[in-house]
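Thread title: Can someone regenerate the structure for this chain?

I was given the following input by a collaborator and told the matching structure tokens would be attached. They weren't. Posting the sequence so someone can regenerate them.
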Amino acid sequence: MQLMQLLTVRFWRLWVQRSGSILVETALVLPILLLLLAGAFELGRFMLANQKVSALAASMADMISQADQGISESEINDVFGAIEHVSKPFDVGTDGRVIVSGVIGTSGNGNVVNWQRCAGAELDVRSQIGAQGARNVTLPGSLDLLDGDMAIVAEASFNYEPWIFFGFFDPQTLRSSASFRPRFGAMDTVTNDAPASSC
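Best answer:
Regenerated them for you:
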């Protein structure tokens, strides 16, 4: 009997004691908070990567379309040199690809890819509008070109791999494209003054 009373008294003291309750509650809630924090970090990183890919496509098309009096291989290579700066903190040079195409409208063959240049890693990413020489191509945003009109189309892709949830989510290829019309004249050919960044 005395043992039972002793156990009851000790159990009652343990039940009324609240000094360790904060530690227990923290131990229960902390993993959930860390999971939420990690998820917010990964979601923010994914959104930033998507934004960088969109900005990269728009920047490449915009810079090339501003070339004065046609375009040369060295000018295209100079623009491709900006990929690293536009895509920071992501490395599109090793985990992505940029494809720039000069598309001309024709009356008989629709839109034709006159020239195409690529930079970045050799991913299994092909141009969504077609390879050099492709005919009747559809441009981003259903842009219509009249006979003799030009458009510069840039396509950017990046192989996104999660940092934290790499076992739960598969890597994804983020893609974006942009098109601009040349501002200062025709760009139907590329002047050969340097090694070509061919696809």
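The longest strand covers residues 96-106.
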